[in-house]
Structures are given as C-alpha cells and as structure tokens.
Amino acid sequence: MLITIDPTSDVALHEQIASAARRAVANGEVTAGERLPAARDLAESLQVNMHTVLRAYNALRDEGLIELRRGRGAVVLANNPPPPEVNDAVADLVALARKHGIDARTLHAQIDERFAQ
C-alpha cells in the first residue's frame, strides 16, 4: 500500500493518511485481515510524527475499518459495502464532476476536505 501526503494541503496530515488507507481498502489494494504499515515505519517514511499516524489509525478504528491489536498493529476488518444510496450518490457526483470538467484528483481533494470538516 502506497500512502502519499501533501504537506502544503489544507487537509490535515492525519486525515490525508486516513483517506489514503480508506482508498486502499475501497480499491481492494488492502483486504480484510491484512495489516497496515506499522505506525513508526509509516511515520518515518512520510517524515511525520508517529502520533500523526496514530491519530489517523485511531480515526479508522473509530470508523470500524481497522482493529488496533497490541503486538500486531492495525489490521483491516471485513469490508462492509456502502449502502446503495451512497453508491448512487457517488455515481451522481462523478457524473456531475465530468460534466463540469473536474478531474478525479480535484474531486478527491474536495471530498477529503469535506471529510476533514
């Protein structure tokens, strides 16, 4: 799983990390039972404080996406598919973005900003 952050973004670093993990799970890059990188290792590779990574992992735990296990780290829980109305809303949002010439990266950034609020 590749996690990248943009230190110049208005989105908090911990939220960028959490969003990247959410995307990895949603895309099937990381599946149920797999471990996320150790907080210390991820913090070192991203050049952020370990507590920033732990804050992201705690948010993911609170959402029910991962389980934090002592000695085993962050483990992805079984995927719960989003409800149909969320899938419909996403399809509508993507169609609207395409209609207005908004690319996927810009749309992702806007969604990430909204989640961070």
Strand order of the largest sheet: 1-2
The structural class is mainly alpha
CATH architecture of the largest domain: Orthogonal Bundle
Weakly predicted, low-confidence segments: none
Q: Into which percent range does the helicity of residues fall?
A: 40-55%
Count of DSSP H/I helices: 5
Shape: globular
What is the CATH superfamily of the largest domain? Winged helix-like DNA-binding domain superfamily/Winged helix DNA-binding domain
Organism: Epidermidibacterium keratini
InterPro entries: Tscrpt_reg_HTH_GntR, WH-like_DNA-bd_sf, WH_DNA-bd_sf
Keywords: DNA-binding, Transcription, Transcription regulation
Protein name: GntR family transcriptional regulator
Q: What features would you describe in this structure?
A:
The model has no long low-confidence stretch (mean pLDDT 90). α1 (13-26) crosses α3 (50-62) and α2 (39-46) packs across α3 (50-62). The protein folds into two domains: 1-79, Winged helix-like DNA-binding domain superfamily/Winged helix DNA-binding domain (Arc Repressor Mutant, subunit A, Orthogonal Bundle), CATH 1.10.10; 81-117, no CATH class. β1 (66-69) and β2 (73-76) form a beta hairpin. The protein is globular and about 45 Å long. The chain has helices at 13-26, 39-46, 50-62, 84-99, 104-116, and strands at 66-69, 73-76. The protein starts with 12 loop residues before the first helix and ends with a helix. Helices cover 55% and strands 7% of the residues. The chain has five helices and two strands. The protein is mainly α and 117 residues long. Strands 1-2 form a two-stranded antiparallel ribbon. GO terms for molecular function: DNA binding; DNA-binding transcription factor activity. It comes from Epidermidibacterium keratini. Pfam families: GntR (PF00392). InterPro entries: Tscrpt_reg_HTH_GntR (IPR000524), WH-like_DNA-bd_sf (IPR036388), WH_DNA-bd_sf (IPR036390). This is GntR family transcriptional regulator.
